[in-house]
Structures are given as structure tokens and as C-alpha cells.
Amino acid sequence: MASGFSIRRQPGFAAIACLCFAMLYLPILTLVLFSFNAGQSVAVWEGLSWRWYESAWANQTVQDVSVRSLQVASVSAILATIAATMAALATTRNKPFRGEAAIYAVMNTPLIVPEIVTAIALLIFFASIKVSTGYTGMGYLFAAHTAFCIPFAYLPIRARLEGMDLTLETAAADLYATPWNAFRRVTLPLLWPGIIAGLMLAFVISLDDVVITELVKSGGQDTLPTYMLGQLRRVVTPEINAISTVFLLLSVVIVTLFFFLSRKKS
Amino acid sequence: MKWTIAGMAFGSAMLAMAGSAAADGELNIYNWGNYTSPDLIKKFEETFKVKVTVTDYDSNDAALAKVRAGGHGFDIVVPSANYMPIWISEGLLLESRPDQMENFKNVDERWVNVDWDPGRHYSVPWQWGSTGVLVDTSIYKGDINTSAIAFDPPAELVGKINVTPEMNDVMSMVIWYVGGEYCSDDKEMLKKARDKLVEAKPKWISMDYGVIEKFASHDFGAALYWNGAALRSRLANKDVRYGYPKEGYPLFMDSVAILKDAKNVENAKLFQNFIMDPQNAAMISAFANYANGIKGSEPFLPKEMIGAPEVEIPADAVARGHFLKPCPPAVQELYTKIWTDLLK
Q1: Helix A188-208 and helix A238-262: axis angle, to 10°?
Q2: B100-111 pLDDT per residue, tens
Q3: CATH match for A61-262 among 3.20.20.150, 1.20.1560.10, 2.60.200.40, 1.10.3720.10
Q4: Is this model's pTM higher than 0.90 or not?
Q5: In chain B, what are the domains?
Q6: Hey, of A126, A129, A216, A218, which one would you mutate to test binding to chain B, going by the most B CBs within 10 A of its CB?
Q7: pLDDT score recorded for residue A265
Q8: Would you say residue A233 has pLDDT above 80?
Q9: What is the mean pLDDT of residues A50-61?
Q10: Which residues of B touch A220 (CB under 8 A)?
């Protein structure tokens, strides 16, 4: 094995790897750099300043859309995680049953179906509900985001459950624990890191969403990503860079936490 | 602890749902992103004690799709001239008769009997502008009032040209450049137009939105782009000039209309009347840098806009500007094919 084929020793590996990293990170670095620009420009450097962070912070619209984004992400991540946890328990803590694979596939369709297809389907479907009920509140965004966040919450929870031995619950039952007590005292504490990881992943996925939100939103329901999209066609100031940088930072923090929580303890 | 936070988030969500029920004193505007002056909205809110909500869209098609589906909850929409006939013929707009409103007398005669809304029974002008040629005159000293800048670029500008990724603008300009009629399906003419584009494209640097920064950093030497951006480019780089191609150039106008299923019709009508006031119209222009079509708004404009050659079309160039009509679907398909070919 030691002297076998290794991709890392192929000619050009380092060069290709560096190129890939550069392609991935240079644009983001430029974006972050220019968020500190003192001038109006996103291309000409005029010195270091916090002014765009200050102006973004003071911008009422940016505040509104950010709060809305966080609200949508919190609500849908929580709902999606509850559903995903129940689904994961049902599909791993039992003997395999008929149709389990089908259920697994159905739950994960949001990962496969192109987002724009889901978005258009939801636009048409929700529009008819909006017309017949007259309700145009945030419920539609919550429902849509919850639906596509479920598989993202489900996968880490399921992975965690698969690493947990079924005999733990059996042992608890042997010691006269009721099913509910076995769940509360044994399964849940062990599963907790998986649930939090799923929650955070769902949160980030909801926070990033553009296409579905754009087509589902009603009046006054712009989220941070759809607001930013609307800005792009006209004058772009480093304020957008500043917002993006904060957004990026938030995502990185959450994904890092996710990584540490979902890492298998050796 | 964790559950308290979850509970709070959920509780606040429920409040948001309850709070969004329609009430009196609201107005829901659905407009292009980054296009609505916050000062104008604030003034309207304070004058009429109405809570205004602005929601963004980023294309005519997206707006149309959402409104067609129904249940959108918007009162006002701001379609472009070439889309207006679709909105009207599909019965999506309310005939609010702006022409009978108090401030209608301020509308420039030029914008009253427009093709897309004759006599202004549905819509009032929001902003208008043109697509023309931006040139950094420190790089190229020749005539800039021609589309040849983009389609047969002079040697100095090769590799420094940006062309707007807007199909209708570019197609119309190249068709006029080869001497054709927009919306014509003359195969020979279209072949010439296509060849021209394919031949010119390697001499361009990009087909992107956002030119002001690139003129400031001297990355661009020329561009086919909108006049509002041309004004801002000149403020960022004093050598940038805006040319009105002698072969013809497209005009655009976005107009404010009320949706047929609007819930706040009276407030929407107030808004239509409100923006025909010169002082208020000037606020629209001050924010986005395009002309507004309301007489008497000039004195209220920011000083860099007053008499700016990008905003005020020179008398000799006026006749060469055309609004683009929607072409018949078969023709549109041909143009789309050429366009996709070009983008490949």
C-alpha cells in the first residue's frame, strides 16, 4: 500500500491544487478586501476604512432584510430539524421495513430536484392558496424553507444514529426503562450533537437561499440574498461587499461549529 | 435555555404572521431593485400616513410571472415600456386614469401619447433613459456618436469594450447598424447582423453589468451601456463621454401602474399623483440618475444632473432614439437564437 499509486505524487498535482484554491478563494478575498475600501469603488483601492460597514449597519433596509433572513432561517431550521430527527429515528432505530429505501429517496428529493423547478412549482401552488385564503404572510416562506432544509438536517442526524449501537436502547429496556425514558435518557443525549449539527446546516442552507425565496416571497418579504440580488444590476458600492463579508463570516462560523460537532470522536 | 431561544424565535415568527395581515394605510410597491428613492418613500409615508413596503424584482419576466400567478399582495408595479402592452393586454393592470389626476399637467407632452399606453390611462412615468456608447476619450479621440465603437471597434479600443448583456438592446443596435429594421425577419439582413456580432465579439473584453468602476480603474475603454451609468462613469473618470449612435439607439422607460388585484387602490392612486409632482419626481431621479419625464423637476435635481449631456439628449440626436416594441414571437425566437449563438 505504501509504495502504491498516490494521486499526490502525480506530476502537476501541486500546481493544479494551487490553481483550484486560487480560483475558489481569490474572488472572495478580493470581495472582502474591497469591503474595507475608503472610496466608492469596488475596483479601485483608496485606503482602509470601516465606512461601508457603518453605512450598511445604519441602512434601515439592510437591517430589515437581515432580521427577516435570520427569522426565516431560525424558524425553518428548527421545524426542519424536528421533522428530520423524527424521520431519522424512524428509519434507523427499527428493523429495516419494506419501503424504507423509498422513504429515504422521497425525503432527499430536494437534494436532487433542481431548485428552479421547486421554486416554480411552489410559486404556482402557493399563489392559488394565496388567492383563495387571502393570507400572504411569512408562513409560505417558512413552509418552503422547512421543506428544502429537511434533507440537510436529516443527513447528519442519520449519520450520527447509524454510529450509535442499538444495544444501548436494548440495555435500557432491560433495566426497565420505558421507551420514552430510554429515548430521553439514552438516545437523545447521544444524538444531541447530530441534532445541533443538522440544525446549523439547515440554518445556513436557508440563510443562503435565493431562487425559491425570490419566487415565493410576497410584498415586503425580501431576505438578505434577494435584496442583494436586486442591488446588483445598478450601482454597486462596497456596502454590498461589507454585507457579503458579514454574511460570509456568519456562514463560516456556523459551518465550523457544524464541523466540530459532527466530527466522529475517535 | 436552548428551548427558550427556540420558543422566542417561533413566537416572533407567529407575531410576524399575524402582523402582516392587510390593514388600512398600506401600500405595497413591487419595483426594480435599488431603484426606489428612500427619501421619496419617507415623504409619501409622512404626507399620507401610509405604511409603504417596497419589494424588489430583478427582471420584467420575474415580475410578470409572479403577478400572473396571483396572490402576490402587491399594489404597484413598474414595468418597462416594451412589457407594458403585455401587462395591459393580459388584464393585469387597473385602468386608474392618471390622465385625469391633478398633477398630470406636469407630465412632459412627449410622454403622454406613448405607444405602450396611449393617453396614459394606466401608468405614469417613473424614469427613462437610453442605451448608447460610453467612450474614454483619453484612449480614443474619434467620433463617438456611432455603434461602430462596439461593432467595428477602432484599433485603440480593441480588447477594452464591454457590451451590456441585454439581448434587445444589443440586437436592435446591431440591426440598425447593418441598416435593418428592428423586428424584421429578413434573413439576409439578420445574417449580416449575426456575422457582425460574431466578428466583433473577440474584440470585446466582457459582457457584464456594472461599468462605472471599470471606467474609473481604466479597465474599460468603451461600453454599450445605459446613460445613467454613463453619467456616474464620467463623475468617476472625467474623460468618459456618452455618444448617441447615428445608426439609432434604444430608449427605455419604466412606468408606474396599479395592479388590477391591488388591495390598496386609493393609496396607489395617491402615489401615482404624488410622483407627478416635479419636486417628488426630482427625488426619484436624484436617487437613480435617470430622467423622470416630469416638467419643472430640473431645479430640484442634484447639480451634476442639470443639463448633463447623458440625461438631456441633444436636439440633433432625439430623432434617432427608438423605443423597442415587442417583436412577434417567431422573430423573437430568431433573435434569441442569434443571441445564444453569440453568448457561446
Answers
A1: 160
A2: 999 999 999 999
A3: 1.10.3720.10
A4: no
A5: 21-128+253-300 (3.40.190.10), 129-251+315-343 (3.40.190.10)
A6: A218
A7: 54
A8: no
A9: 87
A10: 20, 28, 53-55
For chain A, give the longest Cα–Cα distance: 72
Give A258's pLDDT tier (boundaries 50, 70, 90): confident
Chain A partners within 8 Å of B56 (Cβ) = 222, 226-227, 229-230
Question: Per-residue pLDDT for B21 more than 50?
Answer: no
B119 CB within 8 Å of a chain A CB: no
A220/B contact by beta carbon, under 8 A: yes
Q: Is the pLDDT of residue A190 over 50?
A: yes
- For testing the chain A interface, which of B74, B205, B213 should be mutated: the one with the most A CBs within 10 Å? B213
d(CA B203, CA B152): 9
A232 to B288: CB separation less than 8 angstroms, yes or no: no
Distance from CA of B80 to the nearest CA of A (A): 15
Tell me if chain A has a CB within 8 Å of the CB of B1: no
Question: Which segments of chain B are extended strands (E)?
Answer: 26-32, 51-57, 76-77, 113-114, 117-118, 123-136, 161-163, 204-206, 222-226, 240-243, 249-258, 321-323
Contact B173, B164 (CB under 8 A): no
DSSP for B230-299?
Answer: HHHHHHHSTTEEEE--TT-EEEEEEEEEEBTT-S-HHHHHHHHHHTTSHHHHHHHHHHH--B--BTT-GG
pLDDT-above-90 percentage for chain B? 71
Residue of chain B whose alpha carbon sits nearest to that of A218: B72
Helix A60-92 × helix A100-107 angle, to 10°: 170
Instruction: Give pLDDT tens digits for B150-193.
Output: 999 999 999 999 999 889 999 999 999 999 999 999 999 999 99
Chain A CB within 8 Å of residue B35 CB? yes
% of chain A exceeding 70 in pLDDT = 96
ipTM: 0.71
Tell me the average pLDDT across A64-85.
Answer: 94
Contact B229 A222 (CB under 8 A): no
- Partner B contacted by A95 (CB < 8 A): no
> Can you give the residue ranges of every domain in chain A?
8-49, 61-262
Contact A74/B at CB under 8 A? yes
CB pair distance less than 8 Å for A138 and B66: no
Q: What is the pLDDT of residue A3?
A: 58
- B33 vs A61: CB contact, 8 Å cut-off? no
Please list every residue in chain A whose beta carbon sits closer than 8 Å to the beta carbon of residue B229: 234-235
CA distance linking residue B97 with residue B113, whole number of Å? 13
pLDDT at B19 over 70: no
Least confident of A1-10, A55-64, A172-181, B194-203: A1-10
CA distances from B106 to A201, A229, B297, B299 (A): 55, 34, 9, 14
Distance from CA of A60 to the nearest CA of B (A): 10
